[in-house]
Write a sequence for this structure.
């Protein structure tokens, strides 16, 4: 984002070969006895296959399974990552986040302006959410690349209801773990840590806002933000704070990490908007990772295709100023 800006969203070998992803996935399906000649890997959604084998209880929410959205390969989603706590390249996190970093047990704190502040283990939190569901969402990074991701988890609104915010609470601030012993990025100070993100409370309560605990019907891998991370599909990827330890209700708008780093380039709202360019590159189109054609490019949609659902949140707000 700030530290490394490839001129034209160059792809590492690992991400630029959807053909390989396709074959790897087919081989995997074959081992499950499922890959008949008629099966295209992308036509199979995780829960049909993986949940049964991984024992990860999840049910598809049909309201969020648009057949037009073909999920990116599992390999691409879990090998092309931004997680600065574990390095600044797309390939670092898969290695460095899996070298002894423990994401179990994991305590989550609900704090600030709420009637039911509490600390609880993530497994107890999930147990209070009435099961997890799968939703297939578009994902758009501010760096102008995109994927389609089947997330497993629960609506953020359910967690908010558990905390029971007070009337003065207007924002939700979310914070990633801080432990330089296990995080090379935190030891180096490649960003200001801990990583912080925030939403207006009405955004956080929106039906699309989601907490992911899994991908493709399997527990979320460390490099993708285990054991729980935010998913807000109409916003740029840097809002999707990973490995959250604290949800705090505040009266004032929190200062998010990337805005603190470079406020001219990264704002608080970070709504996907093809008409407002990043100062250093266009946001009109995006490179598709791990899907369709080799590094194909497509037009970026307003609010990443969720305009109908979320435009009402921003009536009267100047989206040019509030980027
Ligand atoms: N959360 C933390 N704690 N640290 C990070 O560096 N990177 C963000 C976001 N959440 C980041 C983070 C950015 S820039 C993006 S694009 C997404 O995570 C990437 O998510 P992914 O690696 O699962 O694709």
């Amino acid at each position: 984002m700030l530290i490394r800006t490839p001129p034209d969203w160059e792809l590492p070998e690992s991400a630029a070969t959807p053909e390989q992803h396709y074959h790897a996935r087919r081989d995997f399906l074959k081992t499950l006895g499922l890959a008949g000649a008629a099966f295209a890997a992308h036509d199979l959604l995780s829960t049909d296959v993986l949940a049964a084998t991984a024992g990860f209880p999840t049910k598809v929410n049909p309201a969020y399974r648009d057949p037009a959205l073909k999920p990116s390969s599992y390999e691409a989603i879990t090998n092309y990552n931004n997680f600065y706590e574990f390095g600044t390249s797309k390939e670092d996190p898969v290695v460095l986040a899996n070298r002894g970093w423990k994401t179990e047990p994991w305590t989550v704190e609900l704090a600030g302006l709420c009637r039911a502040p509490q600390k609880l283990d993530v497994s107890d939190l999930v147990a209070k959410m009435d099961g997890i569901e799968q939703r297939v969402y578009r994902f758009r990074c501010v760096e102008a690349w995109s994927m389609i991701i089947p997330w497993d988890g629960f609506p953020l609104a359910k967690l908010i209801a558990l905390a029971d915010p007070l009337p003065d609470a207007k924002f939700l601030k979310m914070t990633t773990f801080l432990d330089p012993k296990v995080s090379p990025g935190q030891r180096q100070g490649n960003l200001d840590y801990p990583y912080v993100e925030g939403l207006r409370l009405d955004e956080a309560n929106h039906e699309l806002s989601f907490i992911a605990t899994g991908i493709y019907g399997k527990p979320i891998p460390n490099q993708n933000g285990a054991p729980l991370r935010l998913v807000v599909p109409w916003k740029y990827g840097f809002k999707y704070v990973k490995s959250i330890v604290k949800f705090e209700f505040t009266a004032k708008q929190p200062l998010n990490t990337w805005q603190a780093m470079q406020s001219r380039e990264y704002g608080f709202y970070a709504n996907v908007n093809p008409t407002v360019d990043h100062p250093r590159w266009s946001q009109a189109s995006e490179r598709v990772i791990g899907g369709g054609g080799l590094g194909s490019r497509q037009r970026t949609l307003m609010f990443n295709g969720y305009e109908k659902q979320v435009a009402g949140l921003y009536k009267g707000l100047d989206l040019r100023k509030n980027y």
